[in-house]
Amino acid sequence: MILTANEKCVLRFLAVSITKEMSMNDVGRACGVSSGGAFKILTKLEKEGVLKAKSISNIKIYSLDFQNEKTARVLELALIPDSFEERVKLRMEDLKLLKTLTEACILFGSYVTTKKKPGDLDVLFVLDRKNFGAYKQTLVKVQDITPVKIHDVVQTTLDLEQNLKKNDMIIIPALKNGIVLWGFDILVQVIKNACR
């Protein structure tokens, strides 16, 4: 299944909106698509079994349907970036030293927006608590080779799941708009667990 940019946006939005009921208009507004465009996308994803809908009065409410095994795979596709800007490729190269110590990595904040000269690099890392010491030591080495200050947000999978349920003001935008460098399957599993 190939996903358009708007379909990816809808899936990522619904993935972080697990504590709220989202209508077609809510989805359209959040993703910057018309009501007709949102209807088309939601209908397609519902037919594919990726979304489930329930009617409340005359409004349909949409959510991810993890009862269907396909949903996790499609959500992974939604998290995979279509391409990387050159500066993101360079930071990905810098951060690769941390890949063996972390389960997932997401770049977010000003560095991944259209800001020309961001002053820092916001990175969300998911890791196993036992790797924290080695992670911190390696992060010092990575910071030495990175031309901007790294602001790391460190979470275990359980922390991430709980913060997703709490609508944490850092975690939600990072998952919705950030650039996932690795750990697509881990992030999908966290989202799936948070939906239970």
Please work out how many helical segments DSSP would assign: 9
DSSP helix fraction: 40-55%
Secondary-structure element series: HEHHEEHHEEHEHHEH
What is the level 1 CATH name of the largest domain?
Alpha Beta
* CATH architecture identity of the largest domain: 2-Layer Sandwich
CATH topology of the largest domain: Beta Polymerase, domain 2
Distance between the termini: 25 Å
SS-based class: alpha+beta
Question: Strands of the largest sheet, in order across it?
Answer: 6-5-4-7
Please state the average pLDDT score: 95
Compact overview of the structure:
By secondary structure, the protein is α+β, with helices and mostly antiparallel strands.
Give keywords:
196 residues, alpha+beta, Arc Repressor Mutant, subunit A, Beta Polymerase, domain 2, 2 domains, 4-stranded mixed β-sheet, 3-stranded antiparallel β-sheet, 7 strands, globular
Structure description:
The protein has 196 residues and is α+β, with helices and mostly antiparallel strands. The protein has two domains: 5-79, Arc Repressor Mutant, subunit A (Orthogonal Bundle); 86-195, Beta Polymerase, domain 2. It is 49% helix and 19% strand. The protein has nine helices and seven strands. The strands form two sheets. The protein has a four-stranded mixed beta sheet. A three-stranded antiparallel beta sheet has the order 1-3-2. Helix 1 (5-16) crosses helix 2 (24-31), helix 4 packs across helix 9 (184-195) and helix 7 packs across helix 9. The longest helix has 14 residues, at 132-145.
